[in-house]
Model the fold of this input.
Amino acid sequence: MLHLENKTDNIAIKNKLEQQLFKISPFKEVIKRTKPHKHDAYFEIIYLSEGAGFHWIDTQKFQINPPVVYFLSGQLHYWEMTAIPKGFVLLFKEDFFDFFKQGELLNLIRNFAGTVTINLSDTANLDFIFSEMVKEYKEPSINSAELIHGYLQVALVKLLRNKQLHESPIVVGNDSVYRRFLHVIQNTQPVSNLKVNEVASALNISPQHLNAILKKSSGKSASELINEQVLLEAKRYLLHTDKTVSEIAFVLSFTDPSHFVKHFKKSTGETPQAFRTRYFQ
Done:
């Protein structure tokens, strides 16, 4: 039986930064269930020192076991809180940093690519660090920006030390192309219409060179990464909206629903409806 009480017709896109480059605030101390939504074009670090419930991120449902940190950069997510949470929410764009002055800090942030949750053995003084950032943000004075950058750098280093996910080394020089490629496919709708040569042209690189870089950075070709993004978008609609399979096929720009069903089954081993039923039975 499907449980659709938290599903909608469309996936909302929120922009809590508006014209700002940086924002930090305490996490709202309320027990509630939020609606599925995305935050595009900026990073979000959520630190919870207390709380309980579940945090959906794309197709994964994480049990909230504080202290924990979530690192988001465009994923769909929502909360199912069962106990009052305490912590902080930090939002920022890459433009918040001067590459020449804070290049090391930017590289620290890029080390979190692909990471969504970091379980902490203890709070690692993050309560103090985030509280100090809130003070400097709410009551700015001389050198507040430098202090915030410093606190953020300390927090990121501590998080990297606690990180439990194994990562391959970053490919120096080619990492920029890989990140720009991911940015394009994650922010193009519908992504199924993307052609490798079009993305390569937008990145001012040949398709062959692009594939070589992506293979070295991720072990996958451009077309494979585009297909993964198509499937992720499909799964988001299946799990977090009430749209029918036919409607999802239309949104993703497939020529007809049967083509979408065949493509989904070939890639995942099950039909879209079977995937949806398995999650909500």
